[in-house]
Design a protein that fits this description.
The protein is mostly helical. The protein is built from nine helices and no strands. The radius of gyration is 20 Å and the shape is globular.
Amino acid sequence: MRTSNPAFRNDAFAPRDWGGIAADLRDGPTFGSTPAKSAVSSTTMTIRGTVVKTSFLLFLCVGVAVLTAVALKNGALPASMPIVIGSAIGSLVLGLIVGFVPRTAPYLSPVYAVVKGVLVGAISLAVAERAGPKGGALVAQAIMLTFGIFIALLGGYAFGLVRIGGTMTKVIIVATGGVFIAYLAHFVLSMMGIGILGAIHGGGPIGIIFSLVVVVLASLNLVLDFQMIENGVTNRAPKYMEWYGGFALLVTLVWLYLEILKLLAKLNRRN
């Protein structure tokens, strides 16, 4: 199973001997377990460990985002644009390092969460201020929708209601690549003063439809991430992959949040 999340690669989860999710959950806590079970759970990836790491990274990112927004609003930090550019470059570099060298995840994924939190906080404040009196409500709605989608998909996946097959996986991968190329092309062309692709960021029908498609695409990427984490646990991937799994989920969740926020901002401009 493949995923379009760049943090998940086929070679990231190095197969060892087969275990599986059922065995991981059945063994329960390591306290009082046999030495063999304790040794396995302390050296291989588990669902519980991945949940803990993901929660920590998410809490760190959200906390930094709130502090950044408050600091910018109160003038404790310089204008948001330098913050956005610097944190965007920093998160990109850190993300590439962790993506290509998963062993660095325990050390760099918390740093990535902090830098990404700065980016999210700066962007959220900029969107809120541009939206006027409704700005705070837009950010709150984007947060609730993001976590609502995440919890719904996670629940559906846990009960076996949501799965993505091989053909659909390929479609999602290609579509995600297309979105990335579109964003990159828009950035390059805008730097040259060419606004050919400006419609996808506007509040017109094209921009709204595009945002809706990207939100759905980001949501489907969450399901692929769940499947890849399950595959890592089943294959008894190394323990550091718990941090790697948390990092990858954070990447997708932040993407989903920013796309929902962008969609809500577009709809607000039409009102």
